[in-house]
Amino acid sequence: MQAILPRQCGVRILDKLGEGSFGKVVLAVNKRNRACWTDRSFFRKLTAMPEEGDSVVLKCVRKEGCYGAKGLQCVAREVAIHSRCCHPNISRMYGYYENGQYVTMILDFIEGKELFEILRTRRQLPEEEACLLILQVLRGVAYLHEKRIVHRDLTPRNIMVKPSGHALVIDLGLAVDLAAEDGDAPGKPLGSPVGAVGTMGYIPPESMRNEKITTAVDMWSVGVVLYEAVFGFAPFAPHEVMAGGPVEFPDPAWGPSSDDMQDLVAQLLSKDAAARCTAPAALSHAWFRPAAAAADALAP
């Protein structure tokens, strides 16, 4: 695995975290100090520099596995978007480099668990814990939307939770920059339909209808994640996503849920994208008020 790195890069691979048809993800440690990273061959592709001894994640994408020029453009888009992001609730990218058959992104290592793993073990979260977690996710999402970036794949697998409770949005591989795609026209959606992109179960009805992308896509996904975290199952069966009915809530015997929480979920899971709650509006919702101070304390 060490062979995927440039010679004398100062990064030592510790473990392989995952591997697929497109490449692999490995855990590594930076063995060089900051001054060494200013070597011209690296500096031009770094937006930030890890400290000596910092753990990093290397996301190594195989060039021949990217489906040609279009695939490489997608990798370049991910790098361009992620390198612009600097927020306590979004995973950090240090930069990238190309080496032979790989394009490798250098990401901060997050010690914790995917929300998916947490829910698989515990099934449900107490409402107070879900509130703190989703508040942090929404802060990251609001930051992306302010930059006119749409994540497009917000799922429990793309939310990391540290032991402290600090939550971060990860994997901007499907993210799009609306400004870049639409000629930087404020308030306008993406200029052409792109279909149902993302993970089934978290894709909103307008995307299933192949409609234009807006930031409302992410808000639907956050609503699904919140519902699953509190109740332990999805808000809609697959055939119900395209139906006209509103979201329904389980009988209180399944578990207590507050009126404020249900109100927010109903706004997030509006099947009318234009009527769906925005990230700033969601952050100002009454349900989050008790968790605001705790979320502030978790931010590094």
UniProtKB/TrEMBL annotation:
PROSITE patterns attached to this UniProt entry: PROTEIN_KINASE_DOM, PROTEIN_KINASE_TYR
Binding-site residues, ATP: K59, D171
Domain Protein kinase: 11-288
InterPro entries noted in UniProt: Aur-like, Kinase-like_dom_sf, Prot_kinase_dom, Tyr_kinase_AS
Active site: D153 (proton acceptor)
Keyword Nucleotide-binding annotated: yes
Domain of life: Eukaryota
Presence of the UniProt keyword RNA-binding in the record: no
Protein name: Protein kinase domain-containing protein
Organism, scientific name: Cryptomonas curvata
